[in-house]
From TrEMBL:
NCBIfam families according to UniProt: PRK07480.1
Family from the record: Belongs to the class-III pyridoxal-phosphate-dependent aminotransferase family.
Name recorded for this polypeptide: Aspartate aminotransferase family protein
InterPro entries recorded: Aminotrans_3 (IPR005814), PyrdxlP-dep_Trfase (IPR015424), PyrdxlP-dep_Trfase_major (IPR015421), PyrdxlP-dep_Trfase_small (IPR015422)
Keywords: Aminotransferase, Pyridoxal phosphate, Transferase
GO function terms (MF aspect): pyridoxal phosphate binding; transaminase activity
Pfam families named among the record's database cross-references: Aminotran_3
Lineage, uppermost ranks: Bacteria, Pseudomonadati, Pseudomonadota, Alphaproteobacteria, Hyphomicrobiales
Organism whose genome encodes this protein: Aquibium carbonis
Residues of the signal peptide: none
PANTHER family noted in UniProt: AMINOTRANSFERASE (PTHR43094), AMINOTRANSFERASE CLASS-III (PTHR43094:SF1)
Gene Ontology terms: cellular component: cytosol
Organism domain of life: Bacteria
């Protein structure tokens, strides 16, 4: 690497001149300059200005096993030397996607034994949509092609991902979304429960918004419901316990397929391999990516249920779909090693039994009492902090979540990487965080909150 030959200012100038970033206001970037992250180790990232920052977001929800794992680099290196690339099109295959598929079938919910690879969560959701629509066409119901999603869902950034998602800002820029996708209310009790409504009742009401939509357009026209078990980018919205069982009932009653998006929740974050297992959901497709390789390589895996796979295999003939990098041998080698490490180090059990409950307690005891905090919530290693002007009335700051952005900036300046979405601060740590790391994070979050008062 030769970046050391450049000053930080030079890197920022080149970046602003030539690099279009995702989800970035470029005028703002040109004024402020980007934060250039140069290296990372364990739970910490380091920027070019020399700051050490505790990474509360695991990169972008992906670095489950932490940074600087030589074993993953070694797995990639060995695979690159032996076979850097070959595809799995046209009746070819390579060993690492074969073995990874076997491993994934072992850890996935028991009705999931087939997997389709891409490079990103967006690609996986695109594939999932194609598969479910094709499934119904093969079952003789081509009109059963509508999909129901939720407001503030995030399913990726391609036209399909953004259309499946329920982010208004993204829809406004699409110039026309993929048709036949509807969005219904999200299970977000903090803002949407009515006065006096219990969490249980609210969860049922939110689920029944899906049923209302099915009845409105007719079950014969609805292919699937898609949802993140916990809405991540939309603000770590943890549904009441009554929500998913009711969604499952509704999907079964109307023969609507259930598509889970576990791009964030997959591979340990909820204290199981998949949130489907934590929440007892039986899905027809599960989209995964991110922590599959801990972000060390781009890779997504779409699980397909035995029911859907049987129809596609038996009746489908050739599936005219695939990506050059589907089943990329290097990415799959890294995924295999990553899963081995998660298992070997008992990370999932630790999140479930020890560090997840400790994080929940720390957020409740140390953060929720703060004047600027309306609610904290967490599930495993996913957490959220609601920022309010007034705790009692839950009144927010200005529209647009300016207070949360300010707190995020204070947090980063004090060595803590957090994300702000609207008025919600989000936490998605690497699974390697210990109780001591959680204490350190809380110290820094409290400091950032105090500075923003
Ligand atoms: N689905 C969910 C739930 C996500 O959080 C994301 C990305 O954050 C995606 C899909 C899209 O994944 P990618 O950015 O890899 O395309």
């Amino acid at each position: 690497m030769t970046y050391q030959n450049y000053t930080l200012e030079q890197l920022q100038q080149i970046d602003a001149a030539h690099h279009l970033h995702p989800f970035t206001d470029h005028k703002d970037l040109r004024d402020a300059g980007s934060r250039v992250i140069t290296h990372a180790k364990g739970p910490f990232i380091y920027d070019a200005a020399g700051n050490e920052i505790l990474d509360g977001m695991a990169g972008l929800w992906c670095v489950a096993i932490g940074y600087g794992r030589d074993e993953l680099a070694d797995a990639a290196y060995a695979q690159m030397k032996e076979l850097p690339y070959y595809n799995s099109f046209f009746r070819c295959s390579t060993p690492t996607p074969i073995l990874l598929s076997q491993k994934l079938a072992e850890i996935a919910p028991s009705n999931m034994n087939q997997v389709f690879y891409g490079s990103s969560g967006s690609e996986a959701n695109d594939t999932a949509l194609r598969l479910v629509r094709w499934y119904w066409a093969l079952e003789g119901k081509p009109r059963k092609n509508r999909v129901i999603s939720r407001h503030m869902a995030y399913h990726g950034s391609t036209i399909t991902g953004a259309s499946l998602g329920g982010m208004q800002g993204m829809h406004d820029q699409l110039g026309g979304a993929v048709p036949n996708i509807a969005h219904v209310m999200m299970p977000y009790a903090y803002e949407l429960a009515q006065p006096g409504e219990s969490d249980h009742d609210f969860g049922l009401r939110a689920a029944r918004a899906v049923e209302d939509e099915i009845l409105r357009v007719g079950a014969d026209n609805v292919a699937a419901f898609i949802g993140e078990p916990i809405q991540g980018a939309g603000g770590v919205k943890i549904p009441p316990a009554s929500y998913w069982p009711e969604i499952q009932r509704i999907c079964r009653q109307y023969d609507v397929l259930l598509m889970l998006d576990e791009v964030i929740t997959g591979y340990g974050r909820t204290g199981d391999w998949f949130a489907a297992q934590s929440m007892g959901i039986e899905a027809d497709t599960i989209t995964t990516a991110k922590a599959l390789t801990s972000g060390y390589q781009p890779l997504s895996a779409l699980f397909v249920s035995d029911r859907v796979a049987a129809t596609i295999v038996e009746k489908g003939g050739e599936f005219y779909h695939g990506y050059t990098y589907s089943g990329h041998p290097v990415a799959c080698a890294v995924a295999l090693k990553n899963i081995e490490i998660i298992e070997r180090e008992g990370m999932i059990e630790r999140v479930r039994d020890e560090t997840g409950p400790y994080l929940a307690k720390a957020l409740k005891e140390r953060i929720e009492g703060h004047d600027l905090v309306g609610e904290v919530r967490s599930f495993g290693f996913l957490g959220a902090i609601e920022i309010v002007r007034d705790k009692a009335t839950r009144q927010r700051f200005q529209p647009g979540g300016s207070a949360a952005v300010l707190i995020r900036d204070h947090a980063i300046a004090n060595g803590m990487m957090l994300r702000a979405t609207g008025d919600t601060m989000i936490l998605s740590p690497p699974l390697i965080w210990t109780k001591e790391t959680i204490d350190m994070a809380c110290d820094r979050i409290v400091k950032a909150l105090d500075l923003a008062k």
